[in-house]
Please model this.
Amino acid sequence: MSAKVQETVEPGRVRQMWHLLEPLHALLYYAPDAFEEARALGYDVEGRWPSYFAWRAAPLGPAGAERVASAFYSFSPEMAARYVPEIWRTATPAEVLDARLRAVDRAYRSVLGAEAVEGSDIAEAAALARRAAGAAATAGRPLAAANAELPWPEAPHLVLWQAATILREHRGDGHLAALLAAGLDPAESLVSFAAVGAASERTFASRGWSGPAWTAARERLAARGLLAADGSATDAGRALRAGVELRTDERAAAPWAALGPGPTARLAELLGGPWLAVIGSGLLPGENTLGIGKI
Model:
């Protein structure tokens, strides 16, 4: 990260933009309209994971379980293998990509309202978000690169969603680099995050790690002096996680530096209404594994 980017964009602004855009992306994984589209493809929608793995992994092509687990990082390899590559026997990645745009279109119209979706504010937000996404370097960022390689849809609200997706995966890929630099493997990344109160262990259990795997990760972190006997983070553990989050913000700053402070502030203003609509819909969980609202 260059000194210029660090001076231009405060970590707080970078994180604010993530907090505003993340719900607009994540609606795909929870909206009833998206589950209906997934069912039409043939996926079991009694739980959310078959469609989640399909929606998120489709830009990678017909990737196998090892590649998907690597890109997603925090999910246990066993959980990834439960759904991948079976999801590609149900529908091809190309079919999934078409369906996810239909799902986002329906979900945005349901949650934001047709008037907002077709309004000038969404069009302006989409144009600004697309400019930021276009400045997101994708070297070493497989999920960001896979989404950036997709053709842009025409409708502004779908452009907004795709830009939000590129930017969140750009940030996420950078976050994985920060975790690796801190010496935190996939299980340890979750255990250490739970230890600082980002979310409950019950929430992190959704990533499929077994009890023994979780305990082993705890023991490894305790041996490094990062966890106390009760499983909470030590001062060293909190400092390590704070450093990971700071480096994540720094690695996610370039798109906002390229967009500039004025347009970034304008985009934040424009996203306020859609953000409130998505949060107010009650479709997203109150607690999440990303630590939004806690870190």
